[in-house]
Each structure stands twice: as C-alpha cells, then as structure tokens.
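User: Can you model how zinc ion sits in this protein?
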Amino acid sequence: MRLAVFRRSRGRNLRIGVLFTYVEVKVPRRMSLVEAKRRVRKLLPRLVRDLRRARALFLRAMGLPLERRSTEELLTQFSELLSRALAKLKIRGVRVSVSNRLRSAWASAIIKRREVKVSKLAAFLPKELLWYLAVHEACHFYSPSHDKAFWQCVEKVHPTYRQSKELMTLYSIKVKRVCEGLWTRSRS
Ligand SMILES: [Zn+2]
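Assistant: Here's the modeled complex, given as structure tokens:
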C-alpha cells in the first residue's frame, strides 16, 4: 500500500484519505510519527479494502474513451440536445453558454436567468452523456432541487438515466485526472 505522509500546519487531528491509488496521511504538528503510524496500522484492514475498491473504480475510469470536441462543437451539440429535452417538457426560452469556470460540476442551470451553463470539460463526454446532462439540466426548470419530482422528470425523458449517471461519476474521475491543472488548483 502506497502512503503519502504530510505534516499538517494547522488542525489537531490525523487525517487519512484514500485517493484512488494511494493513501494520504496528514499528521498534525503535535503528533509524533510513531503515534501516527500506530493509528494508521489500526485502520489498515479498512484502508486496504477502501483502496482496493477505489483502485478498481479508478482503473475502470482510466479505460474510458474521451471525445475531443472544440468549444463550438460542444455548444452546438449541447444546445441541440438541451432544446430536445426542453421541448419534451414544453419549456421554452432557455439560453446556453459554455463556461471555463465550472470546475466541480458538468453543467449548471440558472433558473431565474433562464440559462444553462455547460462546463468546457463536457467536451470530453460521449454524446450519450451529453444527452443525460441536457435532460438533467432541463429538468431543473421543472424542479430546481434534486427531489423526487426532479428524478421522476429525468426518468420520464431518459428512462435509462441511472446507467448514465453512474458513468458520469467515472468520467469525472478520468477528466479530473486528465485536466488536473484545469479543474482544480494544483496542490503543492
Ligand atoms: Zn442537478
């Protein structure tokens, strides 16, 4: 098991996180490394299990093919799909724009402004997942939160959405990895 050990400059607690291929251990300033080791050892069976699961997910994600669309191609395709989804819900007058700033979400619906922003990174997604994304955002004009009515709306327009949703999670892992610098601020 690969461990990456860091000293925490703030905070009092030992932090242990499973990051797909290794375990990150952040040791508070006042804790000795011996003590940190003892605590990690105590959690070992769980860490090994979590790491195995995370690594399997990671490998599946890494095997996924990426699309290469230009921003214009993304805008055109996503607009088409969103119009189709909105038409099914009889909703009109929603604008689409591509955002460079969306990092933690693939898209975002701004209900009051009747606008959907789609992340530039969605250019990497296969068309079937752009469809899921379009349906998801369209349904937010029906129900802004992820409540029961919302998911019923998604299911009505996209009956096999659950598979797409799962695949989206895997694509998040892959695209995050590919665009580490783009998506998150680089960790130093
Ligand atoms: Zn949502």
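A couple of observations from the model: The CA atoms of residues 77 and 130 lie 8 Å apart. The radius of gyration is 20 Å.
User: Helpful, thanks.
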